[in-house]
Amino acid sequence: MNARDAGAGSAPPRDPLSRLEELARALRCLPGVGPKAAQRMALHLLQHDRDGAQRLAQALVDATRTVRHCERCNTFTEATLCALCQSNKRDATQLCVVETPADLLMVEQTQAYSGLYFVLMGRLSPLDGIGPKEIRLERLLQRASDGVVREVILATNFTNEGEATAHYLGELLAARELRVTRLARGVPVGGELEYVDAGTLAQALRERRNMGSEP
Ligand code: ZN
Asked: What distance in angstroms lies between residue 209's CA and the mean position of ligand 1's atoms?
């Protein structure tokens, strides 16, 4: 400690509760965590699991520094291209469009699909001000127009927003002379892929239907 640091000791001591409050406030960035739950988590970490708290803090720093988007499919990866995009075992003529990396993992779990993916990292939601620009749909159009892709499978959720996104994309992609298909209705109305079992999803993939006219 140098002389200047020692001098800082003359400042009034911080309220010990303020750091705790800061932690609770920070935890509220987690989905579904309100003020009460955040406070419980903060107290738990400090009282019972300081090692866990340190690991969590380090993992957050590491992940936010190193995880980025795959340049080809937009999913999370630490490299320029994700492992799926780098693999030569995948069928590059098929492109499956999903909303999130979790949805990609769900489709992978079905083992019924061997093509490539594009992850939207969202969906159209005009009421929330999320339009084609906000989710950068032009990147998907570019990706699908590489001359190798023949079929685009729209595997957005069966929620209102997921359906609207599929409809919008279907029209744009069909105009580019691509075969555009949508998962079959095995997935329930309002259903999110993440919560559908792999068997149902595999069937929905196999029985996918054409959208619009076939090229
Ligand atoms: Zn990728």
From this structure: 25
